[in-house]
Specification:
Helices cover 48% and strands 9% of the residues. It has 477 residues and is mostly helical. The longest helix has 17 residues, at 16-32. Bound molecules: glutamic acid.
Length: 477
């Protein structure tokens, strides 16, 4: 049975990197008919918060990454919050102590700090020097009785190497003498990340550990723990980092990093999902994948070794593509509150028509507000380039005047009746149709780019069209 997990520490929002890790795990589980488990690694009590926890759920839900076991979804391997598993962690630490694979350490933070500084002075890596490993049973007993704070450290093999066989990276060799006797249980009785992670992955029967390659250096420590317990190793797949365009690790400097910020900025979840799937995973040149296609095509083997670069232009391109595919009703639901906020209440049918006019022009949902201004407010400025090109011509006055007259008498005022007016006028004045449409567009919208002209004319209505043509004419003088 394939069982994978996403194991975030609830210390902040769900970031793009975390979401990508969650997605790869989810895709692998769905592709293999396995289980996707959400485990909250909340043992860092100072940094874990309830809001962050909620933000992670929210981010995952927005992307549609549902978990089969985890918070709010019962499973046979719970609890799924690490802080509710402390007894399990402590029991296993005790087991290692009893088997002579771990020891109590009573060194105070000040002493450890001194040791670290001394090592730095000797230009050595800061490693614990094993002072407490040498304590006699008698000394240990005394110190325990005196109640001074203690941690439990894991005994590392003094030499040799630990090999990580990684699905993405291949074989990665770590020299054991670069590691030290690391803490597994802290003085407050909480496990450290490496310890809790191994216990919970094993007890939850995780078959594949798929995570960011910033954790690769933790893996030899984890492997040594598996070996100390005599447990089988899961398979490891460390996925490459995500970088900004400047090749530095993706961070706040590069703009929004939290998934929910993307939702607020007007991205569709399917576009973000599609985009992050491609960060470090590929399937030929294909860029656009439905959720089902991703599930079908995802393999761990095709995760790339090299880091991925986050390119917001590409994400925008995908978002526009996905917006064009969604149903008008869904687009309207997303746009309506933004329009009402910007322009106040309007007739729903009118709002629907405005949204629909821009359906294939939006890159981000809030673009609807800036693009549709002239449907809600008078035109106060004209595009200067447009003025040169279309208002300052010999025929501009004639064009706008005649158009105004003809449209004023037009009944009914619909796209179908408007179109012939433009065409006949072009013939009458012996100009190209564009020489009617462009000046008219400039007069009605102030811009050179709008949805199809006849739609705009119909939607604005006879009265507004008349007033705006009039206003443009007066600006010609
Ligand atoms: N809690 C760790 C993190 O958020 C999980 C790492 C892992 O997947 O093992 O980075």
């Amino acid at each position: 049975m394939i069982r994978v997990r996403f194991a975030p520490s609830p210390t902040g929002a769900l970031h793009i990197g975390g979401a990508r890790t969650a997605l790869f795990n989810w895709l692998y589980a769905r592709n293999q008919g396995g289980k996707f488990i959400l485990r909250i690694e909340d043992t860092d009590q100072q940094r874990s918060t309830l809001e962050a926890n909620k933000a992670i759920f929210h981010g995952l839900e927005w992307l549609g990454l549902d978990w089969d076991e985890g918070p709010n979804v019962d499973g046979d391997y719970g609890p799924y919050y690490q802080t509710q598993r402390l007894e399990i962690h402590q029991k296993h630490a005790q087991q290692l102590l009893e088997e002579g694979k771990a020891y109590y350490c009573f060194c105070s933070p000040e002493e450890l700090d001194k040791k670290r500084k001394a090592a730095a002075d000797r230009k050595e890596a800061p490693r614990y020097d094993g002072t407490c490993r040498k304590l006699s049973q008698e000394e240990i007993k005394k110190k325990l009785e005196s109640g001074i704070p203690k941690v439990i450290r894991f005994i590392l093999p003094p030499e040799g190497e630990t090999i990580v066989g990684d699905i993405v990276r291949g074989k990665v060799v770590f020299k054991n003498d670069l590691l030290d006797d690391f803490v597994i249980l802290k003085s407050d009785g909480f496990p450290t990340y490496n310890f809790a992670c191994v216990l919970d992955d094993h007890l939850m029967e995780i078959s594949h550990v798929i995570r960011g390659d910033d954790h690769l250096s933790n893996t030899p420590r984890q492997i040594l723990l598996y070996k100390a317990f005599g447990w089988n190793l899961p398979k490891f797949a460390h996925i490459p980092m995500i970088l900004g365009k400047d090749k530095a690790r993706l961070s706040k400097r590069h703009g929004a990093t939290s998934v929910i910020d993307y939702s607020a900025m007007g991205y569709l979840p399917e576009a973000v999902l599609n985009y992050i799937a491609k960060l470090g995973w590929g399937c030929g040149d294909q860029e656009v994948f439905s959720r089902e296609e991703l599930i079908q095509k995802f393999t761990l083997k095709s995760i790339t070794k090299s880091s991925a670069v986050f390119d917001v232009d590409k994400l925008n391109w995908l978002n526009g593509k996905y917006i064009r595919q969604i149903l008008p009703e869904r687009l309207f639901t997303l746009c309506e509150p933004l329009l009402i906020e910007a322009y106040g209440n309007h007739d729903v049918e009118y709002l629907k028509k405005v949204v629909s006019a821009f359906h294939d022009r939006l890159v981000l949902i809030p673009d609807i507000v800036s693009l549709s201004t002239y449907f809600f407010q008078d035109v106060t400025e004209y595009d200067p380039g447009g003025v040169e090109k279309y208002f300052k011509t010999d025929k501009a006055k004639k064009v706008l005047e005649t158009l105004k007259e003809k449209l004023a008498g037009l009944e009914p005022f619909t796209r179908e009746s408007i179109e012939p007016v433009f065409k006949e006028l072009a013939k009458e004045l012996d100009v190209k149709l564009g020489m009617i449409i462009h000046p008219c567009r400039l007069a009605l919208t102030g811009t050179l780019d709008s949805p199809p002209m006849y739609d705009v004319v119909e939607l604005l209505g006879k009265e507004k069209v008349g007033l705006r043509l009039e206003k443009a004419l007066s600006s010609l003088l």
